[in-house]
Every structure is written in C-alpha cells, then in structure tokens.
Amino acid sequence: MRSNRLHTLLLATLLAFFSATSRNTIASDRPNVLVILVDDLGYGDLSCYGAEDMRTPHMDQLMQRGVRLNEFYANCPVCSPTRASLLSGRYPDRVGVPGVIRTHAGDNWGFLDPSAILLSELFQRNEYHTALVGKWHLGLESPNTPTERGFDTFHGFLGDMMDDYYHHQRHGHHYMRKNKEVIHPKGHATDLFAQWANSFLLEQALQEEPFLLYLAFNAPHTPIQPPKSWLHRVKAREDGISHKRASLVALIEHLDAAIGSVLQTLDRTKLSENTIVAFASDNGGQLNVGARCGPLRGGKQDMYEGGIKVPACVLWPSRISPGQTSNQRLLTMDLYPTLCEAADIEISHTIEGVSFLPMLLGKEQEWPQRDLVWMRREGNMRYQGRDYYALRRGPWKLVQNSPFMPYELYHLEKDPMEATNQAHKETKVYRELVRALQYHVQQGGKVAWQSPR
Residue 159 and residue 176: Cα distance in Å, rounded? Predict the structure, then answer.
C-alpha cells in the first residue's frame, strides 16, 4: 500500500508539472495511438448504454468525446481470437487463433502465426514507441511474447484470466512481467495497469517520437473481485441489488475510475489533442455472473448478438468532432487499418479489416460488400474440440450457437432478438450463406493453430 501511495504522490507532482508546460514542440505531427480494450463488458453494462444501477462517467465521457459505434462487433465471443484480430487486422482463424490460448496444452486452442504482421510490429517499424500494458493472452512463450511481437515495452500479464486480482496468478503460475522479467507487484490488477499506463504516458510526454499504447484491462472478467470499498459503495447506493450484481457493478465502476485516471493523464500532459483513442470490449458480458448485454440475446461464448456486439468508440480531439454516433457495422479487425491510416502507415500485406477513418472524419466513404464471419473452436464437454459459427450478410444472420446445433437463420432488421428462425422458410438465403461460410472454413484451414513443438 505504501508503494501505491508513493506512486500516487509522484503522479500528482508530475501532472502538476505538465499542467504548466507543453509537450516538446519538435514532436511529430503524427498522432499518438491509445487502444483501450476491456474484458467481458456487456452491451448493457455502461450508464450510457442503459445500465440504471451503474455509474460509469469516464467511459460515458469517452463515448461523448468522439464517435460512438453502435454497430461494433467483437471478432469472437471469447478472448484470444478477438485480440488476435485486433492486432492482425484479420479473422482470428487466419492467424492461427480460432480459440482461447491457455496454459495447459490439452486445453489450448490457438497458436498465433509467427508470420502474421501485428499492429505493434508495423508501428514499431515506422518509428513509434510501442507499449502493451495489461493483458496479452496471445502466447506464453517464444516466439509469441509481447516484446518478440513488436512491443518495445511490456508491463502486464501474459496469460488469460487471473485466479485472483491481487495475487495475479493463473494455475499457480506467475504471469506478471515487465518486459521479460517476472515481477510480483502488490495491488489490484486494475489499479496496477492504470498506474503503469499513466507512468508510460508521463514518460512519453517528454519524448519526440509518437507512441502506440495498447492498454488491455482484465476487468470485468471473472473472478468478480472488486475492492471491498467499491462493493460497499454500490450496495449502499442501490437498494435491493443482489450481491452478484453489486459485485460486477463495483468491478466495472472501479475499472471506469482507472480509465478516468488515464484520460486525465492524457489531458493534463496535453497529449490528448493529438492522440487517437479507440475503446472496445473483447466480447459480450458473462451472464451467469450478473452481466447484462442490453436488449440482445445471449452473452459471452454465444454467437447470438449479446455475445459479439460490444460497446465501442473512437475519439481524436484534433480531427474528430465530438458527440457523434455511427450505425455502420464494424468488426474489431477494422481498427487495424483505421489506426494505420490515421498514422499514415502503409499496409502492403493481406488483411480482411477495412479502414473506417473517412467516416470518423466526417467524409463520404464507400463500403465494400462483405460478409462478416465469426467462429470459435473450443474443448471441454460442451464443445468437444469442435467449431461453431455465425455469418452476417446484410440483414441476414446465419447462426450455429453450438457445434451440435443446426444452423439458424434470422432477419435482424425485423427480428433483432433472434427469436424467429427462418432457416426452413428462406431456403435460398440459407443455402447461399452456408456456402459462403464453407468457403471461410476452407480458408481458415490453411493456417496451423497448434505450436509445432
């Protein structure tokens, strides 16, 4: 606790210094980039998305300061594949991550393709200082550790979930790292990640080179473990709230405060004006721990809308007008080309992501006709090592929510709750979408997804 208080005092002192000074005027005009990814945040679990028992002023403010993306989808209803898509601009099965990467080989469902060109690697080649603070979850050993995949700095957690937000272990392994060094920090992981991000921003405010900071929080993933004072505050405020729901609300409100501290550092160091900030969740909320996914069917792990539709926004104070909303349908992988275009970084290799920067800047943009595909491979007795899928074409959505279920077909414009299966009625549409999905499966099969070792 004493080290946390000293860090807070130092941070306050440095912020006071930056409030009276400006960043080095020789600094590049290229924008800084901050990507904030949160874990398992449901579409209905922010105040601005309709949560009446929750107060999330900082994430709400994020949505107001730029363009709120109302039709933004995670690339997968679980963790590792969405992260692979964010960093590669590709569908996850086309970079070797069709499922969750885990500690034990028998329960591991991905191996990030070493030849995939990650966002961090592109920005590093273009003289950005690249940093990852927080959760990695794309590999536990060489060649897939952060500092081997384009990050100059890594301060965070290699693994998937933490078994405890204060002890930071998973299956008895210590996965906290500072670059390659094993570390044993004290404190709640959400607080630590915010502190480390703030320290990085303070350092970068004195540098001439632009930065890419990927800030990936574990929260509000299980275990639902908010600091006790935050839980007490929610219970005192919300009459009749269940302990389960109060715990999740407190964990999200605690996360909101951490994000608020990072935004404050951006503002007070005067970095914010030329920093493009992208915010999203990696998948939908986990319903059995109290999450809410708004007026959508399903949640985390589901191919229904509640498992894949997530809160998201992008802001860039010097270029993007605040208070906007967009209903353009987008995927996590679209952030890759968008951020590269904002930084004037050329992409000369194949990706499936599509830049939406012109739309963000208020310009006319032609959108390619494209199908959107979701897939996941998973073990345990529920999935037994098999895949399940969804495909969206216009208003139509083909869904298989379990490997052992038949495909279902929904017209989302008429049936947003996915209540009326049209598979036996709209047979022509059904067959066309199944054929399109089969092609995607064939392409994904070209990429290895297990380590050759």
Answer: 8
Task: Evaluate whether 23 touches 269 at the Cβ level (below 8 Å).
Answer: yes
Tokens read off for 183: 């570390």
Say what the pTM is: 0.94
Q: What is the pLDDT of residues 248-260, one digit of tens each?
A: 999 999 999 999 9
What's the pLDDT tens digit per position in 39-97? 999 999 999 999 999 999 999 999 999 999 999 999 999 999 999 999 999 999 999 99
Q: Return the structure tokens found at 46.
A: 């922010």
Residue 365 contacts by C-beta under 8 Å, 6 or more apart in sequence? 356, 358, 359
Q: Which domains does the chain have, with CATH numbers?
A: 31-360 (3.40.720.10), 372-444 (3.30.1120.10)
Do 343 and 128 meet the contact criterion of CB atoms below 8 Å apart? yes
366: left (phi over 0), alpha (psi -120 to 50) or beta: beta
Q: Which amino acid is at 321?
A: S
**Intra-chain end-to-end CA distance of the chain, in Å:** 42
pLDDT tens-place string over residues 162-184: 999 999 999 999 999 999 999 99
The pair of three-digit structure tokens given for residue 434, joined into one six-digit string: 């199944």
Amino acid identity, position 401:
N
Which contacts of 333-337 are long-range, i.e. CB under 8 A and separated by 24 or more positions?
A: 333/75, 333/85, 333/86, 333/88, 333/89, 333/90, 333/91, 334/89, 335/35, 335/86, 335/89, 335/278, 335/280, 336/86, 336/87, 336/88, 336/89, 336/119, 337/89
Q: Confidence band (pLDDT; 50, 70, 90) for 16?
A: low
Kindly report the length of the chain: 453
